[in-house]
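Section 3.1: Structural characterization of target chains.
Under the original work plan, the team committed to producing a structural model for every single-chain target entering the pipeline before any wet-lab resources were allocated. The record below documents one such target. The sequence was received from the expression subgroup and is listed exactly as submitted; it comprises 345 residues.
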Amino acid sequence: MLTLGIESTCDETGCAIVRNGSEILANVISSQIDLHNEFGGVVPELACRRHIDVMLPVIDEAVKQAQITLTDIDLIAVAHGPGLIGALLIGLHAAKGLALTLQKPLVGVNHVEAHLYAAIMSLQEPIEFPAIGVVLSGGHTALVTMHSPDRFSLISQTVDDAIGEAFDKAAKILGLPYPGGPQIEMLAETGKSTHVFKPGTVKGRPLDFSFSGLKTAVLYAARGQNGNEESRVLTDIEKANIAASFQHIAFSDVIKKTLQAASQGGSIHVVFGGGVTNNQKLREMFGQLAPQLKLHWPNVGLSLDNAAMIAGLGHHCYLREKQDACLHLEAVTRLPFSNTTRGPQ
């Protein structure tokens, strides 16, 4: 089965062709970092305009790279949430237009679930389920139980900032360019964890995340106890120490809660998804602190937003549902995991 996947949830326009849910024939991504860099974050209206401009060229390029024709496609998969509503609608309408024109079935895919699928779609041997899924991205932070490649139960999530968002905001406080995650990682390599930052806690929900307080701690460390000394000049080493301290505490919190979730769920397989998983310090710390777990990280090119993960998971969703969603599929800014039952903490 050849699946054409479309991704447009935020600021990447993607189209991919995937065979049988795992073999990637093409994975084309048009990034918008250049567009949003001067604003220090994504501007939704500008993102939508860029999606409109590049959507059809990206689809054409994916078909060309896969060395197929559109008539060879068996299934259309599209990320219909969560994400920016305007951006989602552009991808959804493109997918519906293709499905109706080609008379092919259409399936909607949860963008966050697809991030987790990205880490296992190219594995030579299947992993054992249930597994623990760890979503670490710019818009989402969550722990889930993966019952299968396409069935998930929420364990915990962030109650405020996502971890990637916290990295971007911390970087902005330190005067670093967007996107902030890679900048913090690079700066932290030359620093030491000299600041005693504390991870956020949520009363009654010990596995939930909160990064807002950690972000505020960075603000105070950089601009004084009132956080308003904007004229304060930090040395390069001071910035590096703040970055290292922030990164260390944020990742220590993620690792601690992942270990707790794995212990409670009796799982040894941990699957990671989202752009923050590109961070090499995170991978190093997990390897050191959780040697008993089998860690599955997404391949290069599959951790950030992309359409290959949409096509891959869409393949499994369609085989499970066996129905065409073309006429009633809608874009949604918030979308729960496939199984919304929340596990105990």
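The longest strand covers residues 23-31.
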